[in-house]
Amino acid sequence: MDAGNDAWVLIAAALVLFMTPGLALFYGGMVRSKNVLATMMLSFACMGAVTVLWAVVAFSLAFGPDVGHGLIGSLRFAGLAGMGHGLPGFRHLAVSPMAVMVFQMMFAIITAALISGGTVDRVRFTSFIVLIVAWLFVVYVPLAHWVFSPGGWLARRGVLDFAGGTVVEINSGFSTLAVVLVIGRRRGWPGEAMTPHSVPLSLLGAGILWFGWFGFNAGSALGANDLAVTAFVNTQLAAAAGLLGWMAFERWKEHSPTTLGAASGAVAGMVAITPAAGFVAPMAALGIGVVAGIVCAMAVRLKFRWRYDDSLDVLGVHGVGGLVGMVAIGLVATRSVDPGGANGLLTGGGWHLLAVQVLAAAVAAAWAFGATWLLAKGVDALLGLRVSPEDEARGLDITQHAESAYSIGGSGRPGG
């Protein structure tokens, strides 16, 4: 083990965990004031539930020795036992297995929390947590094994996904689409105006996400090395380019670039560079960011045409942004950045890598959507995913948690 590598991976894990409260602020600012605490609570509940389940059994299933033709891992590391023997496929890295475990834990947490963005204003809290528990084992764990574990079937085919374009981004986007199709639209949407109650709160959250994303991408190098530096630089460049691309699209389409659009553009750029951060050159990262900013800005508008109520645009930003990043790898990846990677179509590598990237993206989207839809239908049938019309009208802060974000009394409880 190398102390410097362990220190960097642990710092990166802390940065990724910090992204989840940032996401709570980002989402919380975009909903109406009667639902802000309920929205933020979904992210914090994911921090608790996923942490426990990941340590007890989920990590072992995702990263344990393969027992099913690249489909799932074993229970060798259940309860974090046997970690001293090293992780299969990771033994060449000078980093503690426990550091890898906790770093990957933070990925699982924020992916689960992202799904909440599509369900705000009408989801039943307990039902959502039951859904996330089932989703973690049925959807996230297998996909993480397929892509992130060297024994996974997609990893064996040569897919390149540096920090989670499939496992995190495409997964969260298409899982969210499945849930919102089951849960239905918010009452009054799209005819009734449902404007953000605090754009500054969302901007603060976006800033925390930007800050934490350096841990997300640069930490995926699993060492304090040149590859981490490149991923860090690429993350900043893509975020800035995505911000500018989204604003340019808004200026052209609607004549007014918005602050929330700028924040969303930065997120879109970081989403797209997530799978590519350790495989592309910095100028390619700029291009990926610009394309993501424009394409995602276009994608979020499709929900009004197709009438699916993805409240906070998880599919349009994360799902579509993840697709952009995965395809971009197949086009512009270069071994000059990571000799262990591959060259893309435009860098002398031919069509093979692009085909593998498209396959992995399609599999991730199909698996996330199909499996999550079945889980959501099951939870809805057993518990009901949606609150009553009366509770939805009154607000989820009071009806789900007996609290109010902006109560005059100062206690946070009605009448306090």
End-to-end separation in angstroms reads 53 Å
- Give the quaternary arrangement of the chains: single chain
Write down the CATH topology: Ammonium transporter fold
Can you tell me the overall shape?
Answer: globular
What count of structural domains?
1
In CATH terms, the superfamily is Ammonium transporter AmtB like domains
Gyration radius, to the nearest Å? 20 Å
Unreliable spans are none
Largest pleated sheet:
none
Helices and strands, in N-to-C order?
HHHHHHHHHHHHHHH
- CATH class category label: Mainly Alpha
Protein described:
- It is built from 15 helices and no strands.
- It has 416 residues and is mostly helical.
- It has one domain (3-401): Orthogonal Bundle (Ammonium transporter fold), CATH 1.10.3430.
- Helix 7 (199-218) runs parallel beside helix 9 (259-273).
